[in-house]
Amino acid sequence: MTPAIDIQQLGKRYGALAALDHIDLVIQPGEFFALLGPNGAGKTTLISILAGLTRPTHGSAKVMGYDVLSEYRAARKRLGVVPQELVYDPFFTVREMLVIQSGYFGIQGNDAWIDEILYRLDLADKAHTNLRALSGGMKRRVLIAQALVHKPPVIILDEPTAGVDVDLRQSLWQFIQHLNQEGHTVVLTTHYLEEAEALCNRVAMLKQGRIVALDSMRNLVRSIQDYTLELRLSTDALPAALTAWPVHHDGNLYSFKIKDYAEIESVLSILRTSGIRILEMQLLQPDLEDVFVNIMESVPAGAS
Ligand SMILES: Nc1ncnc2c1ncn2[C@@H]1O[C@H](COP(=O)(O)OP(=O)(O)OP(=O)(O)O)[C@@H](O)[C@H]1O
After folding, report:
1. Is the keyword Mitochondrion in the record (predicted)?
2. Cys-Cys with 110: which of 65, 83, 102, 178 at CB 3.0–4.6 Å?
3. Ligand 1: which atom is nearest the Cα of residue 42?
4. What whole-number distance in Å separates Cα of residue 177 and Cα of residue 184?
5. If we measure between CA atoms, which residue out of 92, 85, 148 comes closest to residue 120?
6. How far is CA 15 from CA 18, 125, 159, 304, in A?
């Protein structure tokens, strides 16, 4: 099967800085893939190369088998990118802009699909509104509509829900999940890790231009063994027997790292014999955020 995205030894340098450093990444058709990393890790650079907006320094990138440089038009036609910012002519209406965008991809008579996108993104009653008259949230919906207008098999969403209200977030995810179920490949970058955890099947984590983790969501979350036992105590000083325990605290709220249930018993019995009362107790499962923090802390800063 031709991969949806096939990246080999991809690199981008800005002077001495390696924004991307020998990236290998293959994403299969139908995946819902998360591309995660702290600010400056290289996510936007990678997306810009796939969209043909930035030239790599070395290596290759293909979309549905088409090289983003030597077969730019064929590759671009198969890709829908929802960027962080809207670039538009403010005098067009929403619908006019979508018709023009369809023409750009050589598509005539796209009305039925444009109507469906407008409906799904709750933009139908704004179809004849000028782009400049839209609110920030509405403009973001238009960005998504614009990326989908040519029904691309591969959809990349670059932080689509930053600053977006709960309603739009939910309707957006329903629509994107529906497109994914219909076979579209979806690549998502987001700083909302719980969103990535809920939606994506596989994850790549980038740090300083390198892939530092690449696995299924399941395996990554399972790779963390530690639970967190959160206790609010009647004191903000721990008994001596617990001071060596891996623990963070904020006032009298303590977070103990726990490897198994027997350790919970040990902590509780030490507290009991020390006469310390438990005011609140919660056992937290590891999540993608724990994985992210662990990986980002454990991987040494790369030379660039
Ligand atoms: N045009 C440019 N000139 C010089 N350096 C650049 C340029 N574009 C990006 N960089 C640098 O390349 C690195 C990667 O940036 P990039 O925007 O790809 O990161 P990111 O992972 O998308 O970050 P964010 O989460 O903040 O959007 C950063 O150190 C950035 O400063």
Report:
1. no
2. 102
3. 18
4. 9
5. 148
6. 8, 48, 27, 10
Q: Which atom of ligand 1 is nearest to the CA of 46?
A: 18
**Would you state the structure tokens that stand for residue 145, as one six-digit string?**
């509509």
Q: Is 11 in the pocket of ligand 1 (CB under 6 A)?
A: no
* pTM listed for this prediction: 0.83
Query: Please, are residues 14 and 183 in contact by the beta-carbon 8 Å criterion?
Result: no
3-class DSSP state of 168? helix
Report the separation in Å between the CA atom of 18 and the middle of ligand 1, taken as the mean of its atom positions: 10
| Ligand 1 lined by 19 (C-beta under 6 Å) | yes
| ipTM of the prediction greater than 0.90, yes or no | yes
At the fourth CATH level, the homologous superfamily of domain 5-221 is P-loop containing nucleotide triphosphate hydrolases (3.40.50.300)
278, 208 Cβ separation under 8 angstroms: no
The predicted-structure confidence for 182-209, as pLDDT tens digits, reads as follows: 999 999 998 889 899 999 999 999 999 9
pLDDT, tens only, 126-155: 999 998 898 888 888 898 899 999 999 999
Q: Does domain 225-285 have CATH number 1.10.287?
A: no
